## 1
Amino acid sequence: MPFKDFIDYLQLEKNYSTHTVLAYENDLRDFSNFAEENFDYKDIKRVNYSIVRSWIVRLVDSGISNRTVNRKMSSLKTYYKFLLKTGQIEENPMAKHKSLKTNKKLQVPFSENEIDQVINLLAEEEGFVGLRNKLIVELFYATGMRRTELVNLKVADVSFYQNTLKVLGKRNKERIIPIIPSTLKTLEQYLDERSRLENIKDERYLLLSEKGVKIYETLVYRIINSYFSKASEKVKKSPHILRHSFATHLLNEGADLNAVKELLGHASLASTQVYTHNSIAQLKQVYKSAHPRNSNKD
């Protein structure tokens, strides 16, 4: 397999997810094909930056966004750093590369009303699937966890004694998240319904299909997109928007930024600060309506 030592490094040492590793491998394959077809380089270990720059031009000309180009360049940078570290090259062709400028996308969270509408819709559905889907929505909004974290939840991760959930995040980093009473109640109801499944194959995992196997990420996306399409006119309706809503609503209610950072499982505060934009808008509204010297309260 091409790039096998690098792929092993990402999986075994960096503990990257299967999805992330696949993205890195695809980017390297694409660049390798480009270098061979256009410059007759069969080994991209030996390329110089001018070839990388030519690829960037090709990508931009093809209509790919600067954000996507930057992601692909990040894959190359990581690869060449690995080659330098392991002594396979003496100079890094990406050493002086600078990322393309991008417009920051402001994710629009679901409103509390939209989330309530979806939960009420799900409350009317009977049976195992309806209860499971309701739990999925509630878990996203009550914990702010990532989609891959939710899919990999295990029954043993739930503590009804402590009212908490253990989540395994990026780089296999564990965090403990409190669970609100309403979500705990839905969890209890779901586990009771789950125990009635005829054939459970993936016993350890919390969220299952009707056939008793662990659910998958695409299914989770479809569930969220389907139900929120009934309650929201927003363009993007995904699990990540629910994570965004969790963080934004907490900050709007005065939650400490560092506390939200820990709940989200972010490595740095900079990642959490993305969610403060909507909170600032809320603060401006409060300021406008409440400040005694503001003559435009109405």
## 2
Amino acid sequence: MYKVLLISSKNWDSLKEIPVVLKNAGCGVDIYAAKGSWVLANRFHDKWIEASTDENKFTDELLAFLERHAHEYNWIIPGDDIIIRQLNDRITSDELFKKVMPVTKIENRALLGSKAGLSALCKQYNIKTPKYLIYDESQTVDSIADYMGFPIMVKEDESEGGYGVFRCDNINELKEIFNKIKNRNNLVFQQLIEGEDINTEALYKDNKLMVYNHSLRMKTIGTFGISTKRVFYQNEALDEILINIGDKLALNGFGNIVFIQDNKTKEYYLIEIDMRPNSWMYYGKFTGNDFTLAIKNIINNNLILLKPSKKLSNRKRVISIYKKDIYRCITTKDIGGLFYWLINRDDCWSYIPVYDRKLFKAVNKHLFNTIKEYIHAKTKKAVA
């Protein structure tokens, strides 16, 4: 059996659908995570290796486990940005690096969890990105503004999930954001191209593109935060671009790859790569870009790009993640959004995780607690 180890150091709910994707492909799935992690809230795994809840011990114990057991797995998946950065900083063995990390070239490790590292590699490999600048202490806010112009994005080097990312439209906003940022090491300033954000979830094996989803955001938690609703459709213009990126950057695993398409030129600019899985990959089965089928191809050493049928490739599909979108509706008082779920708009009931009683129960418990906390906070405020 093709054995997979899925690692979760932070309790991100973005991993909760990944075990079913792997299991349905015929994989044996072991999970390395602390008790109570969202990645465990499913019945689609074979073994749980209980990790320490102490963040300082987690990586030490994980590295010790990998030294002893990495050879037992065909595929090891670090599941969040934090553990990818920590392993990238600490793995010194070439053999262990190639086994664990989602790139095949050690010299490209700078892209793992570092926005500055990705920008530098894009320049090295001539991958089209917006104009950028990496901060050093010789620069002033005025010199940065003169070089970059406006509008620009300011990105903390180790930001994730939309946090640590800011838009600045003028010098005053830039000064305000700059003064708020305490850790300016490898701070990235990036030209903001006026256009549409293009989200892709991809899977690579040994630099080769196996499958990808393409979507536009419809609803998010926060301005640059996690998306909860997207519209998916096929865009073959990205085939060659994603193939080229995988080959040059030596990608090897799940990846979240974000572009911006210039409104004027219609050209695509790479703005972000996070080499780890996320929730949206499960929903590829609804768009014809089935990650489970692509993993089956990997197991059979059939390294070809999976394409949807003509019927699915010509269809747009609106997909909402049940847990995240209901949470967004509750916390932002989006009554229309709740009604959307009530009447099964866009066939949204298809995305409720009834396929797994354990996951369905965990999600509903979380949403119930969210509603209870919201009512309690409102009641407390009214009494005060």
## 3
Amino acid sequence: MLQTDTLNIMPETPGTPLDHVITDHRAWTCDTIDPLDCIVPISDAAMEEIHRMAEHMKANPLPEMLRKPEHFEMTEVGKVMAEARHKLAHGTGVAVIDRLPMDALGAQSAVAVFWVLGHLIARPVAQKWIGTMLYDVTDTGVKYEYGVRGSATSVELVFHTDNAFGLAPPDYVGLLCHHPAREGGLSRFCSLYSVHNRMLEKHPRELARLYEPMLWDRQAEHVDGAPKVARAPMFHWDGKRLNVRANTSLNQKGYEVAGIEVPSDMRDALAVLNEVTLDENLWFGLPIERGQMQYLNNVETAHYRSEFIDSDDPATKRHLVRTWHRDWGKQSYDG
């Protein structure tokens, strides 16, 4: 029996599980794509626009949240972002814009530019219940436990989608790299359609269980007194598109917070999913380097981060700035 209240996050229509293999561009594997195709260079003309943006912002101070693309001339930058958006929707679901000149712009201006450019992917939305729009991804030194996101630690993060436990997960995730880790912190990406294909072919029983509701730790991202765990399926097929919430760590924590054992069929399904994503043919890796802006399709592509060791110099420790984007619902955390 549950020892805590549960927030039910169920699809508006139940739908039926996807029962056939997807063979289009969404179901890529390491053998069918070139990771370097994810790179989007910034043209000289676009870079000139970026420098003019930064100069204008320095001469006309405003909080980053008030900056919007229509405030600037962005003809060439718009072309760069359109290419990135195309890769998110019709490629691997990963686009790495290479790169902002961090030393020339300065940290504050670089974040402001990143904030403005992100609007051309989709509308930015809150990443925490308290309304945080720009989120610092860095090791804060806290232990990974209830109420602490893995992004605030240096631990390994299994393949997942951001805000898998939330009412309104983002469609896209953006990252600006101030500094990479001294060691580790490497990113991997995999197509959730390819993962689904593999499970459909080899583990249909376990896949079917992932279409049924399961518990998720909400990581204390809610008003005081609200349910600490959510109940939702991992996979949902609406007839055209998979909608996926993926983070097996948060499933396990959800059952711990609820005070009950993970059901044996659920434990088996989560174990199989983790095993499938270990197959090197299903993912590719890309480092994120200083000044790069990395965007992810958070519905069709899962991402992984290895454990890392930081620089001894606090000024150069691993530090990314993150944005979330979606064009539906409200701009607040729960949509």
